[in-house]
Amino acid sequence: MRHREAGFTLTELLVTAAILAVLAGLALPLVKVAVQRDQEMELRRSLRAMREAIDAYKRLADENKIEAKDGTDGYPPTLEVLVEGVKLKSEGKDGKGGEEKIIKFLRRLPVDPMTRSRDWGLRSSQDPPDATTWGEENVFDVYTKSRRTALDGTKYADW
């Protein structure tokens, strides 16, 4: 009797490759959904951080602790102001100006995970709610410029 040499036959290799291809094909959609879910969570975090910074700026302007430009309704004129910072009004003990302090609301503008840029859509408090362009009076709200649809069926730009 001859001993069969150790190894796999071509048929065994083809069956194994076919099984792996089917499993990879089934896993790919799951990976795409997981990646999209991660992007959506990052988008929510970025929008929340910028909206909280806008609200903090507005609160300080309403309390007259920072100088707000006329016509801005107390909202920041641009997103960059939130990163660059503004001078906090303070009075010294003698009623004169005290030490000048700069307050920053964001360390940097977040990258939009959907468009992979720092170019966010902006809304002014004077803009109509359905406006698609920014009136440039102030920054009342931010949104992504992505036209894609979320996993829940809503448009990312409506978040």
Short description:
The chain has a two-stranded antiparallel ribbon with strand order 1-2. Strands 3-4 form a two-stranded antiparallel sheet. The chain is mainly alpha-helical and 159 residues long. It has 2 helices and 4 strands; from the N terminus they run ααββββ.
Question: Can you describe this structure?
Answer:
- The chain is mainly alpha-helical and 159 residues long.
- The chain has one domain (10-158).
- It contains 2 helices and 4 strands.
- The strands form 2 sheets. Strands 1-2 form a two-stranded antiparallel sheet.
- The longest helix is centred in the N-terminal third of the chain and has 53 residues, at 10-62.
- It is elongated and about 100 Å long.
- The protein starts with 9 loop residues before the first helix and ends in a 16-residue tail after the last strand.
Helix/strand layout:
Blueprint lengths: L9 H53 L16 H6 L1 E3 L12 E3 L17 E3 L17 E3 L16
Antiparallel strand pairs: 1-2, 3-4
DSSP strand tally:
4
Overall average residue pLDDT: 88
Rg (C-alpha, Å): 27 Å
- The share of residues in extended strands comes to 5-15%
**Main beta-sheet annotation:** 2 strands, antiparallel
